[in-house]
Write a structure and sequence with these properties.
The complex is a heterodimer. Chain A has 13 helices and 16 strands. By secondary structure, chain A is of the alpha/beta class. Chain A starts with a strand and ends with a helix. Chain B is globular, with a radius of gyration of 28 Å. Classes of the chains: A alpha/beta, B alpha/beta. Chain A binds chain B through residues 95-97, 154-156, 192-193, 195, 200-208, 212, 216, 219-220, 222-223, 226, and chain B through 1, 4-7, 9, 11-17, 19-20, 22-23, 25. Strand 9 of chain A pairs antiparallel with strand 1 (15-16) of chain B.
Chain lengths: 390, 573
């Protein structure tokens, strides 16, 4: 059924359809509507499972990961400061090989205090051992959340699903909400090992030797590599039932492109419009949308970019002291490419500032005509655009 | 799905299905929790070191017998102290910071009213070492009681016809009914104590006692009035306070008369209230803020004022008579400076100053001193008391002093405390077991516990009370103390009925339940609950918790959880 809903609401719909056994979360703007919607359904008896009230995000994650170890399906959602507070438990969730699914609404981290869209919060959690998927719109947020449960439970690795503050969390779009029967058939009841079991008590994560520690990390790393196959397969399975799929990366007009623009999340939608306009002017530009960030889809990216002469990465996050985080990752993924594409990073939309078609066209023009590619990112702001106009 | 090692649930995380004891976390730290019960702040404030926390816990569980036994460990007069003690304990109660102190004195009374218990023998080491105690007031009774518990045969000599000293004669029945006192005394006499009444000891008698006994304790009190040293003191109608309290025929003389009591302490308040009960037309107390003692507690001042007794700050300069009989007192005005430290909340210093106070009877209650007798005159005195050290030892070997006769604070409970210290000092001296630790305990410390002296292991420091975990306040709801039933003022002045009643057992249980049990383990199990290594255990039959050294990693969670300050972190032993 098609509904006109916000991205937060779409995620809540997906969670309800997946019949979680335990939901533990703590309110934080702009994620709160997810929590509130689930709580409303819970109090109306429509959610099933158990909602646990906690005093912090740290406890929310501790609750979810412990619940997951008892073999049940778990979900939580957070944002920004809440995610930062959870950091320690994120390592525990992944290291304990749980199947927790979490929606993260990307919001700027304090200080200074703000509520705008910015991906640095989830990208800061890059090395916690979680899978990370970035969504372009409300529909993708809904579909990815449903996929995430299947992926997490197969791999016994936790999955984060990212939706951007405001642009997805609070913008309303027509969204196809699948029928419960369909989802029940596609996503079977949870079947993960009950490692915490009253009838077979156990003590987990005792102190291990150096060698044992190394070996556990190796197993987690192997599982993460295997995840590339699983994410791709689950996406295809989803398509065969629901008719929608997203891939690890998505390409538009890349075959003959002199420049490939790499984007993630909501900037992609705007870039699609800009691309059509540029193509109509005869500019050979392609678009590559990166959806999966952990594990990083190196092969899928190289298939697209190995032979692209020029690459421009435009993104809404920054690792201060270096550049946009996606750009660094893409550079390192292409280091062995025989064609050695030229790569330029652009920072746009940081702090939730508007990334419109005019801005994207400026980036494309700059990258396609640039003689020297610089190692530092180029900040694309109003002043740059005005300067160009003069 | 094909097999992948990295998805095998038994391999991907470390999980033990046996027990955490395999992890010897005890090697991580040298810091360990140390279980040590400590004095509660109320116990430190109690001169006889009553184990209040333990008694409170027992009553909160409905165990009045156990609570009485806990009081009897340190003090033989719970019925008396439960009524007339100045309850220093309550002013130090941690509950004061939260809502209002636990009514400890009332609970001691409840233990005595509702419980039965026998004194416990501490040792029989003193059984061939007889001791004589002269005087059967609070100091003499306490000394005899503790000496007998340490095995000494005790001769308890009393000049009057009945035991109790000041408790029997000086404290009116509306505060301390005779049957209550007698009940306490009967319990004391179940021990090996031989009471000898109607027996006055003079200098010669003392020498004989010193020959026939291994030690003699003087607890004769101070029964002689202090004089004011102002003109007219020999006028008829001026009566010393203690004489008035002792003699009902003198009391009968105040009927219909205007009475002025001079003084500020317990005797002054008691005398004025007794005068009121004997039908005096008016009763006023003139007290000199700079000189006179204050009553031990506000309660009594309030009760006296409710009964219509005026308290006026003033300074008598001369007694004026007519035909040899007192008719008025001339006073001088009190200057502000004289109030400095000595004003209490319920006094009313705003009464207009008068130079002349007309009266028919004057009762002086400005303090007592030693009776001039051959017994006392043979001993060295200073400030009207017999010279002695903290243990009650006089210059003469084998002769000890306790209570008001010695240089100790003049309250019932302080007298009992000095009797206890002297008894222990006598015992250790006679059995040849006085050592450095005992000397330190007897000579220092704010209070003295005989139970500590007889327990094995380290002794508690009475200069430091338990540090209670203030977080416990957050979880305790604010409660109002239980109210003792009190007879209305106009009714009670008609007789000598006990003014303040005791609590019903249910009320006492509720009141004792307000106690935080500072410094005492009540087996709440919080330490064991919060131990992440399941290493806090209570050995069966013992109250102490101990950390298993193989597994305690010294994190301190148990000590942080211990709201009563019993567990504290320290170095591994």
């Amino acid at each position: 059924m098609k509904k006109f809903i916000t991205g937060n609401h779409a995620v809540a719909e997906a969670v309800r359809l997946c019949r979680p056994d335990v939901v533990a979360a703590y309110p934080i703007t702009p994620q709160t509507p997810i929590y509130e919607q689930l709580a409303d359904w819970d109090s109306a008896g429509e959610l099933g499972g158990t909602m646990v009230k906690v005093e912090s995000e740290h406890s929310a994650m501790a609750t979810c990961l412990s619940a997951s170890l008892t073999g049940v399906r778990t979900f939580t959602a957070t944002s920004s400061q809440g995610l930062a507070l959870m950091h320690e438990m994120l390592h525990f969730a992944a290291g304990s090989r749980t199947a927790v699914v979490m929606a993260v609404v990307n919001r700027s981290l304090a200080a200074p205090w703000a509520f705008w869209s910015d991906q640095t919060d989830s990208l800061s959690q890059r090395d916690t051992g979680w899978l990370q998927l970035y969504c372009e719109d409300n529909q993708e947020a809904l579909d990815t959340t449903i996929q995430a449960f299947k992926i997490a439970e197969e791999l016994m690795l936790p999955v984060m699903v990212m939706l951007e503050a405001n642009f997805i969390s609070h913008f309303m779009e027509p969204t196809e909400v699948p029928e419960p029967d369909q989802v029940d058939e596609w996503l079977l009841p949870v079947n993960i090992p009950r490692r915490f079991d009253l009838s077979n008590p156990g003590f987990m994560n005792g102190v291990v030797s150096a060698k044992q520690y190394r070996d556990f990390r190796r197993l987690a790393s192997d599982a993460m590599e295997h995840a590339l196959t699983v994410v791709e397969r689950v996406d295809k399975e989803y398509e065969s039932t629901f008719g929608r799929s997203y891939g690890l990366v998505e390409t538009v007009d890349c075959a003959d492109a002199e420049l490939v623009l790499v984007t993630t999340a909501t900037i992609t939608s705007t870039a699609r419009v800009a691309l059509a306009s540029l193509r109509s002017k005869g500019i050979k530009v392609g678009l590559c949308k990166l959806r999966l960030f952990r594990p990083f889809p190196v092969k899928a990216l190289r298939d697209v970019l190995d032979n692209a002469p020029r690459v421009a990465v435009i993104e809404r996050n920054i690792s201060i002291g270096r550049e946009g985080i996606f750009c660094s990752e893409i550079k390192s993924a292409l280091i062995n490419s025989p064609g050695r594409p030229k790569i330029q990073g652009y920072l746009a939309g940081i702090g939730g500032t508007d990334v419109n078609t005019q801005l994207i066209e400026w980036v494309v023009q700059d990258a396609i005509t640039r003689e020297v590619f610089v190692d530092q990112p180029i900040w694309v702001d109003d002043a740059v655009l005005e300067g160009e106009a003069q | 799905m094909s097999y992948h090692k990295f998805l095998d649930p038994e391999l991907i995380i470390p999980i033990s299905r046996s027990s955490t004891t395999a992890f010897r976390t005890g090697s991580w730290s040298r810091i360990r929790p140390v279980f040590e019960e400590k004095f509660s702040p109320c116990s430190v404030a109690c001169p006889t070191a009553n184990n209040i926390a333990s008694a409170m816990f027992k009553i909160s569980q409905g165990d009045f017998d156990g609570a009485l036994a806990a009081f009897l460990e340190e003090s033989p007069l719970p019925g008396v102290c439960g009524r007339v003690c100045n309850h220093n304990c309550q002013s130090k109660c941690n509950r004061n910071d939260h809502d209002s102190s636990v009514r400890i004195r009332t609970i001691e009374r409840s233990a005595s009213d509702h419980g039965t218990a026998k004194p416990v023998q501490l040792t029989d080491a003193g059984k061939k070492l007889p001791v004589a105690v002269i005087g059967s007031g609070p100091a003499g009774l306490a000394a005899a009681y503790h000496l007998a518990r340490m095995g000494h045969p005790v001769s308890l000599l009393e000049a009057s016809e009945r035991l109790g000293g000041l408790l029997a004669m000086g404290i009116p029945g509306y505060r301390l009914p005779k049957k209550v006192l007698n009940h306490d005394i009967e319990r004391i006499l179940t021990l090996d104590i031989k009471p000898i009444t109607n027996h006055t000891v003079d200098h010669e008698g003392l020498e004989k006692l010193l020959d026939s006994h291994k030690a003699v304790l003087l607890a004769t009190g101070t029964w002689a009035p202090t004089t004011m040293g102002i003109p007219g003191e020999d006028l008829k109608g001026i009566i010393p306070g203690l004489d008035f309290l002792l003699d009902s025929s003198i009391q009968a003389q105040v009927k219909g008369r205007n009475v002025i009591v001079i003084g500020g302490g317990n005797t002054a308040i008691d005398a004025s209230r007794v005068a009121m009960r004997n039908g005096a037309a008016t009763v006023s107390i003139l007290y000199r803020p700079d000189l006179d003692a204050l009553p031990d507690s506000d309660d009594e001042v309030c009760e006296a004022e409710e009964e219509g007794i005026l308290r006026i700050p003033s300074h008598p300069m001369e007694f004026i008579g007519e035909k040899g009989e007192i008719c008025s007192i001339r006073c001088r005005e009190i200057v502000q400076a004289e109030y400095s430290n000595n004003c209490i909340s319920s006094s009313k210093p705003n009464i207009e100053f008068k130079e002349l106070f007309p009266c028919d009877v004057v009762i002086t209650a400005i303090g007592q001193t030693l009776v001039a007798s051959s017994l006392h005159s043979s001993l060295q005195q200073e400030y009207g008391r017999i010279v002695a050290d903290r243990q009650g030892r006089t210059a003469r070997k084998g002769l000890y002093v306790a209570g008001d006769a010695g240089p100790f604070q003049a309250t019932v409970v302080d007298a009992m405390a000095s009797g206890k210290r002297a008894a222990v000092s006598i015992h250790l001296e006679l059995t040849g077991s006085m050592d450095e630790t005992s000397t330190a305990l007897l000579d220092s410390g704010r209070t003295f516990s005989i139970m500590d002296m007889f327990k094995t292991g380290p002794k508690r420091n009475s200069d430091a009370s338990a540090k209670i975990n203030r977080y416990s306040y957050l979880t305790a709801s604010e409660t109002t103390p239980q109210c003792s039933p009190t007879i209305a003022a106009d009714e009670r002045v008609c007789g000598f009925q006990e003014v303040v009643g005791g609590l019903e057992s249910k009320e006492a249980t509720a009141e004792a339940g307000r106690c935080f049990y500072c410094g005492s383990c009540i087996g709440c199990d919080l330490c064991a609950t919060f131990c992440p290594d399941v290493s806090m255990c209570q050995e069966s039959g013992k109250t102490a918790y101990e950390a298993d050294p193989e597994h305690c990693k010294g994190c301190g969670a148990c000590a942080a959880a211990c709201v009563r300050g019993v567990l504290e972190m320290g170095e591994e032993q």
